[in-house]
């Protein structure tokens, strides 16, 4: 009787976790649509500002060229001491030399700032790929990884240095938004595995008619007895309330849907490497019901 009650309670907790995950998925989908919409709306005014800053820089260059030309004939005003004194007083009040330096610096900072905002907006659009969950397209995995890095940067910057060793890989047929979710899960897990400060290394290459992407960290590693369970739904080594145990399970399902494989190599105390292999082209049907994926490889 007690055993049956315990099993029911366990099943109920799992149902609650699934419900929470479904609600979170719907919430993230809505956020993705909102982000794409906001990014589209922001894009136009950013374009105006960026263009206007370019024009303003040219006008300032022309204006300072005129000022320089006036300065070169300033000595000819010696016969008009009052006019010369007035001119020098105006220059002194305006602190012309400082203005020349500071305006240039302000323009550079403004253009750098607006360029960064443009990149963030583009990364939001690339990451969300609203509507692309149902559309198979040929996409650049490096671009997907870069947009994902930008989105999760706040999770990574305090924990790790990012090292990249990208190979020469072709675009592949995929669902870009779903693969970005896989990259996000792997990157966030890598950051959480690092207790103080470490390195997350991202590599890519080609193998067996497909491409692979690795995310390696110098974190605490995964215990050998847990390696074959990490892709199981609800399995987590994180404290209660810190993880649902569904991130890697969802990633596994997405990779399986792409007829690929995801493997892990880990050593306690030294770090973990996840490798995702994906075919360049999907077989007809794209139903993801191919051979079951291997669970894990141990070091």
TrEMBL record:
One of its GO terms (molecular function) is phosphorelay sensor kinase activity. PROSITE patterns: HIS_KIN. Its EC number is 2.7.13.3. SMART domains: HATPase_c (SM00387). InterPro entries: HATPase_C_sf (IPR036890), HATPase_dom (IPR003594), His_kinase_dom (IPR005467), HisK_dim/P_dom (IPR003661), HisK_dim/P_sf (IPR036097), Sig_transdc_His_kin-like_C (IPR004358). Keywords: Phosphoprotein, Transferase. The keyword Signal does not apply. It is an enzyme of class 2 (transferase). The keyword Disulfide bond does not apply. This is Sensor protein ZraS. The lineage of its organism: unclassified sequences, metagenomes, ecological metagenomes. The gene is zraS_30.
């Amino acid at each position: 009787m007690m055993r049956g009650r315990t099993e029911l309670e366990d099943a109920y907790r799992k149902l609650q976790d699934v419900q929470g995950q479904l609600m979170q998925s719907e919430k993230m989908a809505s956020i993705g649509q909102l982000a794409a919409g906001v990014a589209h709306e922001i894009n136009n005014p950013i374009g105006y500002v960026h263009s206007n800053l370019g024009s303003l820089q040219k006008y300032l260059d022309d204006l300072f060229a005129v000022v320089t030309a006036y300065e070169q004939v300033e000595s000819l005003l010696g016969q008009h001491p009052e006019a010369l004194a007035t001119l020098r007083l105006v220059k002194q009040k305006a602190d012309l030399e400082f203005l020349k330096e500071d305006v240039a610096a302000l323009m550079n900072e403004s253009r750098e700032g607006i360029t960064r905002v443009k990149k963030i907006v583009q990364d939001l659009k690339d990451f969300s790929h609203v509507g692309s969950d149902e559309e198979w397209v040929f996409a650049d995995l490096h671009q997907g990884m870069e947009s994902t890095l930008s989105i999760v940067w706040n999770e990574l910057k305090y924990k790790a240095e990012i090292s990249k060793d990208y190979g020469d890989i072709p675009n592949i047929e995929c669902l870009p938004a779903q693969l970005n979710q896989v990259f996000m899960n792997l990157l966030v897990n890598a950051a959480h595995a690092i207790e103080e400060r470490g390195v997350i290394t991202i590599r890519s290459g080609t193998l067996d008619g497909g491409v692979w992407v690795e995310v390696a960290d110098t974190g605490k590693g995964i215990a050998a007895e847990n390696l074959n369970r990490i892709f199981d739904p609800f399995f987590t080594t994180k404290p209660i309330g810190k993880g649902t145990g569904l991130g890697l399970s969802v990633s596994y399902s997405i990779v399986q849907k792409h007829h690929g494989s995801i493997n892990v190599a880990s050593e306690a105390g030294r770090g973990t490497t996840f490798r995702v292999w994906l075919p360049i082209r999907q077989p007809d049907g794209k139903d993801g019901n191919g051979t079951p994926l291997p669970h894990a490889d141990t070091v």
